[in-house]
Write a structure and sequence with these properties.
This protein has two domains: about 140 residues, Beta-Lactamase (2-Layer Sandwich); about 160 residues, no CATH class. The chain contains eight helices and 14 strands. Strand 13 and strand 14 form a beta hairpin.
Length: about 325
Protein backbone atom coordinates (compact mmCIF):
# COMPACT_ATOMS: atom_id res chain seq x y z
CA UNK A 1 0.00 0.00 0.00
CA UNK A 2 1.36 3.43 -0.95
CA UNK A 3 2.28 5.91 1.75
CA UNK A 4 0.90 8.91 -0.11
CA UNK A 5 -1.68 9.52 -2.84
CA UNK A 6 1.02 10.94 -5.11
CA UNK A 7 2.90 7.64 -4.86
CA UNK A 8 -0.28 5.86 -5.99
CA UNK A 9 -0.61 8.27 -8.92
CA UNK A 10 3.00 7.64 -9.96
CA UNK A 11 2.55 3.87 -9.77
CA UNK A 12 -0.68 4.03 -11.79
CA UNK A 13 0.87 6.24 -14.48
CA UNK A 14 3.89 3.95 -14.72
CA UNK A 15 1.63 0.96 -15.35
CA UNK A 16 -0.39 2.82 -17.98
CA UNK A 17 2.71 4.03 -19.79
CA UNK A 18 4.03 0.47 -20.03
CA UNK A 19 0.65 -0.71 -21.31
CA UNK A 20 0.31 2.00 -23.98
CA UNK A 21 3.78 2.75 -25.25
CA UNK A 22 4.36 -0.24 -27.53
CA UNK A 23 0.93 -0.31 -29.29
CA UNK A 24 1.00 3.46 -29.86
CA UNK A 25 4.56 3.29 -31.19
CA UNK A 26 3.54 0.55 -33.61
CA UNK A 27 0.48 2.48 -34.77
CA UNK A 28 2.54 5.67 -35.20
CA UNK A 29 4.82 3.79 -37.57
CA UNK A 30 1.75 2.86 -39.60
CA UNK A 31 0.63 6.51 -39.70
CA UNK A 32 3.90 7.78 -41.21
CA UNK A 33 3.35 6.58 -44.82
CA UNK A 34 -0.18 8.09 -44.79
CA UNK A 35 0.89 11.42 -43.32
CA UNK A 36 -0.77 14.37 -45.02
CA UNK A 37 -3.60 12.25 -46.48
CA UNK A 38 -6.71 12.66 -44.33
CA UNK A 39 -8.59 9.65 -45.67
CA UNK A 40 -5.56 7.37 -45.51
CA UNK A 41 -4.86 8.41 -41.91
CA UNK A 42 -8.47 7.74 -40.97
CA UNK A 43 -8.15 4.21 -42.36
CA UNK A 44 -4.97 3.61 -40.36
CA UNK A 45 -6.63 4.84 -37.16
CA UNK A 46 -9.66 2.66 -37.81
CA UNK A 47 -7.53 -0.41 -38.37
CA UNK A 48 -5.42 0.24 -35.26
CA UNK A 49 -8.07 1.43 -32.80
CA UNK A 50 -8.81 -1.94 -31.20
CA UNK A 51 -5.11 -2.41 -30.50
CA UNK A 52 -4.99 0.58 -28.12
CA UNK A 53 -6.46 -0.62 -24.80
CA UNK A 54 -9.10 1.52 -23.07
CA UNK A 55 -8.86 4.27 -25.73
CA UNK A 56 -11.63 6.86 -26.17
CA UNK A 57 -10.37 8.66 -29.31
CA UNK A 58 -7.46 8.44 -31.73
CA UNK A 59 -6.30 11.30 -33.99
CA UNK A 60 -3.23 12.81 -35.61
CA UNK A 61 -1.87 16.37 -35.32
CA UNK A 62 1.00 18.09 -37.07
CA UNK A 63 3.93 19.72 -35.30
CA UNK A 64 1.84 22.87 -34.80
CA UNK A 65 -0.86 20.82 -33.04
CA UNK A 66 -3.30 21.25 -35.93
CA UNK A 67 -5.40 18.11 -36.38
CA UNK A 68 -4.87 16.46 -39.77
CA UNK A 69 -7.22 13.50 -39.32
CA UNK A 70 -10.71 13.00 -37.97
CA UNK A 71 -11.29 11.53 -34.53
CA UNK A 72 -11.81 7.79 -34.41
CA UNK A 73 -13.64 6.29 -31.41
CA UNK A 74 -15.30 3.01 -30.40
CA UNK A 75 -18.35 3.86 -32.53
CA UNK A 76 -16.32 4.76 -35.60
CA UNK A 77 -15.40 8.05 -37.24
CA UNK A 78 -16.25 11.21 -35.29
CA UNK A 79 -16.47 14.17 -37.70
CA UNK A 80 -15.98 17.81 -36.81
CA UNK A 81 -12.41 17.70 -35.51
CA UNK A 82 -10.38 17.90 -38.72
CA UNK A 83 -8.36 21.12 -38.70
CA UNK A 84 -8.87 21.65 -34.99
CA UNK A 85 -6.17 23.65 -33.19
CA UNK A 86 -5.16 21.65 -30.12
CA UNK A 87 -2.17 23.81 -29.24
CA UNK A 88 -3.76 25.20 -26.08
CA UNK A 89 -4.86 21.87 -24.66
CA UNK A 90 -2.91 20.85 -21.54
CA UNK A 91 -1.32 17.75 -23.10
CA UNK A 92 0.08 19.79 -26.03
CA UNK A 93 1.76 22.18 -23.61
CA UNK A 94 3.78 19.47 -21.91
CA UNK A 95 7.24 18.62 -23.17
CA UNK A 96 7.39 15.28 -24.98
CA UNK A 97 10.38 13.27 -23.69
CA UNK A 98 13.29 12.53 -26.00
CA UNK A 99 12.11 8.94 -26.52
CA UNK A 100 8.98 10.32 -28.19
CA UNK A 101 6.20 9.18 -25.86
CA UNK A 102 4.24 11.32 -23.39
CA UNK A 103 1.51 10.31 -20.97
CA UNK A 104 0.00 13.63 -19.95
CA UNK A 105 -1.16 14.77 -16.56
CA UNK A 106 -4.88 14.32 -16.02
CA UNK A 107 -7.13 17.18 -17.10
CA UNK A 108 -10.86 17.91 -17.53
CA UNK A 109 -12.12 17.10 -21.03
CA UNK A 110 -13.87 19.77 -23.09
CA UNK A 111 -16.77 17.69 -24.37
CA UNK A 112 -17.82 15.59 -21.39
CA UNK A 113 -16.18 17.62 -18.60
CA UNK A 114 -14.67 14.49 -17.11
CA UNK A 115 -11.16 13.69 -15.81
CA UNK A 116 -9.12 12.43 -18.75
CA UNK A 117 -5.56 12.05 -19.97
CA UNK A 118 -3.85 11.88 -23.34
CA UNK A 119 -0.93 9.87 -24.67
CA UNK A 120 1.16 11.41 -27.44
CA UNK A 121 3.50 9.41 -29.65
CA UNK A 122 5.82 11.19 -32.09
CA UNK A 123 5.32 10.16 -35.72
CA UNK A 124 8.59 10.23 -37.67
CA UNK A 125 9.20 10.19 -41.40
CA UNK A 126 11.66 7.97 -43.29
CA UNK A 127 14.45 10.40 -42.43
CA UNK A 128 13.53 10.26 -38.71
CA UNK A 129 12.28 13.85 -38.89
CA UNK A 130 9.23 14.47 -36.65
CA UNK A 131 6.07 14.80 -38.72
CA UNK A 132 3.70 15.33 -35.80
CA UNK A 133 1.94 13.26 -33.16
CA UNK A 134 -0.45 10.39 -32.83
CA UNK A 135 -2.83 11.33 -30.01
CA UNK A 136 -4.87 8.92 -27.89
CA UNK A 137 -7.42 10.23 -25.39
CA UNK A 138 -8.52 8.23 -22.37
CA UNK A 139 -11.44 8.70 -19.98
CA UNK A 140 -10.20 7.94 -16.48
CA UNK A 141 -13.39 5.94 -15.87
CA UNK A 142 -12.26 3.42 -18.47
CA UNK A 143 -8.73 2.94 -17.17
CA UNK A 144 -7.79 0.08 -14.83
CA UNK A 145 -7.27 1.20 -11.26
CA UNK A 146 -4.55 0.17 -8.86
CA UNK A 147 -5.72 -2.63 -6.55
CA UNK A 148 -4.81 -0.84 -3.31
CA UNK A 149 -5.60 2.60 -1.97
CA UNK A 150 -2.84 4.68 -0.49
CA UNK A 151 -2.48 4.83 3.27
CA UNK A 152 -3.42 8.16 4.81
CA UNK A 153 -0.49 9.89 6.45
CA UNK A 154 -0.47 10.09 10.23
CA UNK A 155 1.75 13.18 10.27
CA UNK A 156 0.32 16.28 11.89
CA UNK A 157 -1.17 18.63 9.33
CA UNK A 158 -2.67 22.08 9.76
CA UNK A 159 -5.14 23.55 7.27
CA UNK A 160 -5.94 27.21 7.68
CA UNK A 161 -9.57 28.20 7.29
CA UNK A 162 -11.54 31.28 6.27
CA UNK A 163 -9.34 34.41 6.64
CA UNK A 164 -12.44 36.45 7.55
CA UNK A 165 -13.05 34.22 10.56
CA UNK A 166 -9.38 34.16 11.55
CA UNK A 167 -9.21 37.94 11.41
CA UNK A 168 -12.09 38.34 13.85
CA UNK A 169 -11.31 35.52 16.23
CA UNK A 170 -10.66 37.83 19.19
CA UNK A 171 -13.90 39.72 18.57
CA UNK A 172 -15.89 36.60 19.42
CA UNK A 173 -16.12 34.36 22.43
CA UNK A 174 -17.45 30.91 23.14
CA UNK A 175 -21.17 30.72 23.87
CA UNK A 176 -22.03 27.83 26.12
CA UNK A 177 -23.95 25.21 24.15
CA UNK A 178 -26.32 22.52 25.38
CA UNK A 179 -23.52 20.00 24.87
CA UNK A 180 -21.16 22.10 26.99
CA UNK A 181 -23.69 21.90 29.84
CA UNK A 182 -23.86 18.10 29.58
CA UNK A 183 -20.36 17.37 28.35
CA UNK A 184 -19.34 14.66 30.82
CA UNK A 185 -22.32 12.33 30.25
CA UNK A 186 -22.21 13.01 26.49
CA UNK A 187 -18.55 12.05 26.25
CA UNK A 188 -19.20 8.95 28.35
CA UNK A 189 -21.88 7.95 25.86
CA UNK A 190 -19.46 8.55 22.98
CA UNK A 191 -16.81 6.42 24.69
CA UNK A 192 -19.31 3.57 25.09
CA UNK A 193 -20.34 3.81 21.43
CA UNK A 194 -16.74 3.89 20.19
CA UNK A 195 -15.37 1.12 22.39
CA UNK A 196 -18.33 -1.24 22.89
CA UNK A 197 -21.02 -0.53 20.29
CA UNK A 198 -19.32 -0.76 16.90
CA UNK A 199 -18.92 2.95 16.16
CA UNK A 200 -15.58 3.42 14.39
CA UNK A 201 -15.78 7.10 13.43
CA UNK A 202 -17.50 10.09 14.93
CA UNK A 203 -17.67 13.83 14.40
CA UNK A 204 -18.55 15.81 17.50
CA UNK A 205 -19.98 19.28 16.87
CA UNK A 206 -19.62 21.02 20.21
CA UNK A 207 -21.18 24.34 19.26
CA UNK A 208 -24.30 22.84 17.65
CA UNK A 209 -24.61 20.00 20.20
CA UNK A 210 -24.67 17.04 17.83
CA UNK A 211 -22.55 14.13 16.71
CA UNK A 212 -22.37 12.17 13.46
CA UNK A 213 -21.38 8.51 13.73
CA UNK A 214 -20.48 5.62 11.43
CA UNK A 215 -20.86 1.99 12.55
CA UNK A 216 -19.18 -1.28 11.61
CA UNK A 217 -22.62 -2.82 11.11
CA UNK A 218 -23.66 -0.23 8.49
CA UNK A 219 -20.50 1.66 7.46
CA UNK A 220 -21.84 3.35 4.32
CA UNK A 221 -24.48 5.40 6.13
CA UNK A 222 -24.00 7.98 8.86
CA UNK A 223 -26.34 8.62 11.76
CA UNK A 224 -26.87 11.90 13.57
CA UNK A 225 -27.13 12.02 17.34
CA UNK A 226 -28.85 15.22 18.44
CA UNK A 227 -28.60 16.81 21.86
CA UNK A 228 -31.36 14.59 23.23
CA UNK A 229 -29.56 11.41 22.17
CA UNK A 230 -26.23 12.69 23.49
CA UNK A 231 -27.75 13.26 26.92
CA UNK A 232 -29.61 9.91 27.15
CA UNK A 233 -27.55 6.73 27.84
CA UNK A 234 -30.48 4.70 26.47
CA UNK A 235 -29.12 5.52 23.00
CA UNK A 236 -26.48 2.85 23.60
CA UNK A 237 -29.20 0.18 23.56
CA UNK A 238 -29.85 0.95 19.89
CA UNK A 239 -26.37 -0.26 18.92
CA UNK A 240 -25.58 -3.90 19.77
CA UNK A 241 -22.41 -4.82 21.63
CA UNK A 242 -19.43 -5.52 19.38
CA UNK A 243 -15.91 -6.51 20.32
CA UNK A 244 -13.45 -3.66 19.83
CA UNK A 245 -11.70 -4.27 16.47
CA UNK A 246 -8.27 -5.86 16.73
CA UNK A 247 -7.21 -3.92 13.61
CA UNK A 248 -7.96 -0.51 15.11
CA UNK A 249 -4.88 1.74 15.21
CA UNK A 250 -6.19 3.50 18.32
CA UNK A 251 -6.05 1.28 21.41
CA UNK A 252 -9.37 1.04 23.21
CA UNK A 253 -7.92 2.50 26.40
CA UNK A 254 -6.93 5.69 24.55
CA UNK A 255 -10.43 6.51 23.33
CA UNK A 256 -11.49 7.89 26.72
CA UNK A 257 -8.24 9.83 27.03
CA UNK A 258 -8.80 11.45 23.64
CA UNK A 259 -12.36 12.44 24.57
CA UNK A 260 -11.16 13.93 27.87
CA UNK A 261 -8.53 15.96 26.01
CA UNK A 262 -11.22 17.26 23.64
CA UNK A 263 -13.14 18.52 26.65
CA UNK A 264 -10.03 20.36 27.85
CA UNK A 265 -9.60 22.04 24.46
CA UNK A 266 -13.25 23.00 24.33
CA UNK A 267 -13.06 24.73 27.70
CA UNK A 268 -9.47 26.01 27.63
CA UNK A 269 -10.03 29.49 26.17
CA UNK A 270 -12.97 31.81 25.52
CA UNK A 271 -11.63 33.08 22.18
CA UNK A 272 -9.79 30.14 20.64
CA UNK A 273 -11.85 27.07 21.42
CA UNK A 274 -12.69 23.72 19.88
CA UNK A 275 -15.77 23.77 17.63
CA UNK A 276 -15.64 20.32 16.07
CA UNK A 277 -13.57 17.17 16.31
CA UNK A 278 -13.52 13.77 14.64
CA UNK A 279 -12.10 10.44 15.75
CA UNK A 280 -11.39 7.41 13.56
CA UNK A 281 -10.19 4.37 15.46
CA UNK A 282 -8.88 2.57 12.34
CA UNK A 283 -6.80 5.52 11.15
CA UNK A 284 -5.90 6.29 14.73
CA UNK A 285 -6.40 9.93 13.81
CA UNK A 286 -8.00 12.93 15.48
CA UNK A 287 -9.13 16.07 13.67
CA UNK A 288 -9.70 19.38 15.43
CA UNK A 289 -11.44 22.49 14.10
CA UNK A 290 -11.15 25.62 16.21
CA UNK A 291 -13.03 28.89 16.45
CA UNK A 292 -10.37 30.48 14.23
CA UNK A 293 -11.51 28.00 11.53
CA UNK A 294 -8.14 26.27 11.54
CA UNK A 295 -8.24 22.48 11.27
CA UNK A 296 -5.59 20.03 12.44
CA UNK A 297 -5.15 16.34 11.63
CA UNK A 298 -2.83 14.29 13.77
CA UNK A 299 -2.34 10.85 15.25
CA UNK A 300 -3.88 10.11 18.62
CA UNK A 301 -0.38 9.46 20.03
CA UNK A 302 0.76 12.94 19.08
CA UNK A 303 -2.48 14.46 20.29
CA UNK A 304 -2.14 12.79 23.69
CA UNK A 305 1.58 13.50 24.01
CA UNK A 306 2.61 16.04 26.64
CA UNK A 307 4.66 17.92 24.03
CA UNK A 308 1.89 17.99 21.41
CA UNK A 309 1.36 21.20 19.40
CA UNK A 310 -1.80 22.22 21.25
CA UNK A 311 -0.10 22.45 24.59
CA UNK A 312 2.42 24.85 23.05
CA UNK A 313 -0.03 27.39 21.73
CA UNK A 314 -0.34 25.73 18.31
CA UNK A 315 -4.14 25.70 18.11
CA UNK A 316 -4.40 28.77 15.90
Amino acid sequence: MSAHWKDSVYYQREKLAKLLHDPLSTLAQGCAPAWGDREALNRVLQAGFDGIPHCTYLYCVDTDARQISDNFGPDGLVPGHFGRDRSQRPYMREAVPIWGFLLSDAYISLQKQRPSLTALQIVRGADARPLGYLGADFDLRNLPATPDLYEESAQWRQIKGDPAIRGNVFAQCRVESYLDQHLDPALSIMEELLTQRGVFQCQIHFSSSQATIWTLQDPFRYRILDQEALSDPDICLVYPYQTYPATAAMPMENVGRVLAALKDLRMADENIYLRMSSINIFNGMVSLTFSCDGTHYLSHEEFLGSSGPFWLGGAS
